[in-house]
Every structure is written in structure tokens, then in C-alpha cells.
Specification:
CATH superfamily of one domain: P-loop containing nucleotide triphosphate hydrolases
GO molecular function: ABC-type amino acid transporter activity; ATP binding; ATP hydrolysis activity
Radius of gyration: 19 Å
Protein name: ABC transporter domain-containing protein
Order of helices and strands: EEEHEEHEHHHEHEHEEHH
Keywords: ATP-binding, Cell inner membrane, Cell membrane, Membrane, Nucleotide-binding, Transport
Family: Belongs to the ABC transporter superfamily.
Number of helices: 9
Main location: membrane
Number of strands: 10
Strand content: 15-25%
Strand order of the largest sheet: 6-7-8-3-9-10
CATH architecture of one domain: 3-Layer(aba) Sandwich
Length: 254
């Protein structure tokens, strides 16, 4: 009998995490995390440096292995070695703090590389998709420049377009504005706010609380490798149940 690939199950959850733990040497950076994120949900994760928030989304994207627990993305267990896990990984886009563009490639080349090499699209197909998403983030005119010729804000918009060119179902943001000059932050947040209207699942590690208030369905506060508090923005910013959350917001929210 010829083995067939197991179809990706239909589920209302984009991400399900159960008792996820992760160590760096003797330091436990994630401590038995439990989290469900629905399809189409917009989630902001905040917390102090070293709280595990970036590590959590890197585990979701399988950029970091984890030692124990279970992780499902669209119903597929990501520790499974079957081919459909690779298909699911292709449906997760990532936008990094420091852009991670290839400096020797033009904006267009950065955007078409993934669709051509991973998705197997033709050059023409990949360029059509890139044209669409570069226009979507309002940077079409820079398509044939190199990253070094662009401002930080422009580079981050290219990075967002590059992630979108893979047409992901989940988009992860790892502190996308923290490496930018203050005057460039707004243009990235405006771009992210615009994307949030499209219905894509978004998980954003950020300290931009204005963005969290405006866009997030839920805000998650992490501390010492654990999820300390989760709530809707209207409740999270008015009525914190945890003293550590209150301390964090008191130092952050102006």
C-alpha cells in the first residue's frame, strides 16, 4: 500500500501550546506554557527583557527547539516528522527585530527568493506576488534598490512584504519597531494595523501599548518564563489582577 500524506486538519485554533518548556543551559526560559490562539486572532505579547516572549514565538516558528510539552499549529503537532509539518511551517511568516534582509540582494530579489525556492513558483509568479505586497506596504518604488540604500523603516516594510510573499496564515512579529528611530516607528505600526484588518492571525511581541490597545484581541504579559496575565485590552490596561503586571505597565505606559 502506498503511504499518503495526512491532510492538515481543520481547526478553529491557529496555535495550541501545552506545557511548553525550554532551557538555555541551566536557565529555564519557558516554564510549562499553556496557550490557545484562535484563527484570525490578533495577540500582543509583552513583558520585561528575558521573560521568554521572543523565545515563545521562535518555538512556534520552530526556529528554537523545545525540551518538553506539545505544540500544534492548525491542528498539526509540530514535533511530528511527517511532510505536512513542513507544509504548516511554510504557512508561518516571521518579521524580525533587525530586518534580516539579504544585503546583496535587491528588494525584489529578497521578496521572490522564498516563493521560488520554497513554494516552487516561477519567476513571473513570484514577481507578481512581490509587486502586490510591496504595494500593500507602500514601498513599490524601492523594488530595485538594495537594503543598504533604504531607511530602517523602509527595510522593515520590505521585511513585512517578504514575509507576506509566502502568503502565510500566521504572521509573527518579534519586536519589529525596537531597532527603529522613533520617527520611523509610526509607519511600521500603521502598516501592521492595516494588515490586521485582513483577518490573518497575528502574534506580536512588542512594547508598543498603543498598538496593543488599538489592534489586539488579547494582550499577554509574560514574566520569568511564564504567562502571568491574559486579557482583552480594555480590561488589561484598566484592571490588572497581578502586581507584576501593574509594575510593568506603570513603568511603560505614559
Amino acid at each position: 500500500m502506498v503511504a499518503t500524506e495526512t491532510p492538515i486538519p481543520v481547526t478553529s485554533f491557529a496555535v495550541q501550546v501545552r506545557e511548553l518548556s525550554k532551557w538555555f543551559g541551566n536557565f529555564q526560559v519557558l516554564n510549562r506554557i499553556d496557550l490557545d490562539i484562535s484563527v484570525g486572532e490578533k495577540v500582543v505579547i509583552c513583558g520585561p527583557s528575558g521573560s521568554g516572549k521572543s523565545t515563545l514565538i521562535r518555538c512556534i516558528n520552530q526556529l528554537e527547539p523545545f525540551e518538553s510539552g506539545r505544540l500544534h499549529v492548525h491542528g498539526v503537532e509540530m514535533s511530528d516528522a511527517r511532510k505536512n509539518v513542513q507544509m504548516v511551517k511554510q504557512q508561518i511568516g516571521m518579521v524580525f527585530q533587525h530586518f534580516n534582509l539579504f544585503p546583496h540582494l535587491s528588494v525584489m530579489e529578497n521578496c521572490v527568493l522564498g516563493p521560488m525556492t520554497v513554494r516552487g513558483l516561477s519567476r513571473r509568479q513570484a514577481e507578481d506576488i512581490a509587486d502586490h505586497y510591496l504595494a500593500r506596504v507602500r514601498i513599490s518604488e524601492q523594488a530595485f534598490k538594495y537594503p543598504g540604500q533604504l531607511s530602517g523603516g523602509q527595510q522593515q516594510r520590505v521585511a513585512i512584504a517578504r514575509a507576506l510573499c509566502m502568503e502565510p496564515k500566521i504572521l509573527l512579529f518579534d519586536e519589529p519597531t525596537s531597532a527603529l528611530d522613533p520617527e520611523m516607528v509610526k509607519e511600521i505600526l500603521d502598516t501592521m494595523t492595516d494588515l490586521a484588518r485582513d483577518g490573518i492571525t497575528m502574534i506580536c511581541v512588542t512594547h508598543e501599548m498603543g498598538f496593543a490597545r488599538q489592534v489586539a484581541d488579547r494582550v499577554i504579559f509574560m514574566d520569568k518564563g511564564q504567562i502571568v496575565e491574559v486579557n482583552r485590552p480594555d480590561v488589561f490596561f484598566k484592571l490588572q489582577s497581578n502586581e507584576r503586571t501593574r509594575q510593568f505597565l506603570a513603568n511603560l505606559v505614559r
